[in-house]
Amino acid sequence: MVTADALLTQRKIAKYLIKEKEADYVFTVKENQPTLYEDIKDLNLRKESHHSRTLDKAHGRIEERKIWVSSELKGYSDFPYAEQVFMIERYTTKLDGSRPSTEIAYGITSLSAEKASPERLLSINRGHWEIENRLHWVRDVTFDEDRSQIRKGKGPHCMASLRNLVISIFRLLGFKYIPSGIRYFIMHLESALGILGI
Questions:
Q1: Which of these, 129, 125, 131, 112, lies nearest to 52 by C-alpha position?
Q2: All residues at 6 or more sequence positions from 73 whose CB lies less than 8 Å from its CB, including other chains
Q3: How many C-beta atoms surround the C-beta of residue 35 within 10 A?
Q4: What is the pLDDT of residue 151?
Q5: How many CB atoms lie within 10 A of CB 148?
Q6: How far apart are CA 3 and CA 155, in angstroms?
C-alpha cells in the first residue's frame, strides 16, 4: 500500500500502482485535482455522524481526529480504481492556551470498505504523517535543510544522506526526539566518538 500527498495524487500514478505493482493507494486530495476535490466536498460527508475518532495528547497539544468515509463516488468518479473517499477533521488544542485550530483533509483510496474500515483509513493517514514528521520535518526544521548553502554537484545529495544516517542512528539508539539526541551528544562528545568507532 502506498500513501501520498496531493502532489502525487495523479491518475497515471494510481494506474501504475494498481496495474504494475499490484498495490493499493491512499492519496490526499487537494485543489490540484479540482473536479475530484469538489466531488468529495459536495458529498457533505459531515451530514452523518463520524465513522471513527481518535483523541491524543502529545507535544504540548491535544489532537482529536474524526473521519467520514463514503463509497458514493465509486463508478461516478473517473479517478482510476477509486473505491472510497474520505474526509478527516483534525481539531488541535494547544496546552499553552493559544487558540485551537481545525484542519480538514480529503482523500481517496483504492481500498474497498471490506479491506479498509474507517478506523484503518484513519490509522493509515496518521501513519503517513508520522513518517512525514519523523523524517522530513526533522530534516526541514531540526537540520534546517532548506537553508543549506550546499547547492552544487553531489553536495546536496551527500548532505541529505548524512542527515538521514544521523537520524537513523539516533532512532536506533532509542532517541524518540532528534533534538534530544543532538543535545545529548553535544554534552557527551566521547559517546559520539565511541559510536563512530573513534
A1: 125
A2: 39, 40, 43, 82, 85
A3: 10
A4: 80
A5: 14
A6: 29
Could you tell me the pTM of the whole model?
0.69
How many helices and strands in the chain, by DSSP H and E?
Answer: 6, 6
- Pairing of β 2-4 and β 25-29: parallel
Residue of 131, 50, 57, 66 lying closest to 102 (CA atoms): 66
Per-residue pLDDT averaged across 162-185, rounded?
A: 86
Report how far apart, in Å, the C-alpha atoms of 105 and of each of 40, 60, 109, 141, 145 are.
Answer: 11, 22, 13, 23, 27
Give the number of residues written for the chain: 198
The pLDDT of residue 110 is above 90: yes
Q: What pLDDT, on the 0 to 100 scale, is given for residue 182?
A: 86
> How many angstroms separate the CA atoms of 137 and 143, rounded?
9
Give CA–CA dist 148/180, Å, rounded. 22
C-alpha grid cell for residue 6?
Answer: 496531493
Which strand (E) or helix (H) includes residue 85? strand 84-94
CB-count burial class (<10 Å; 0-12, 13-18, 19+) for 24: buried
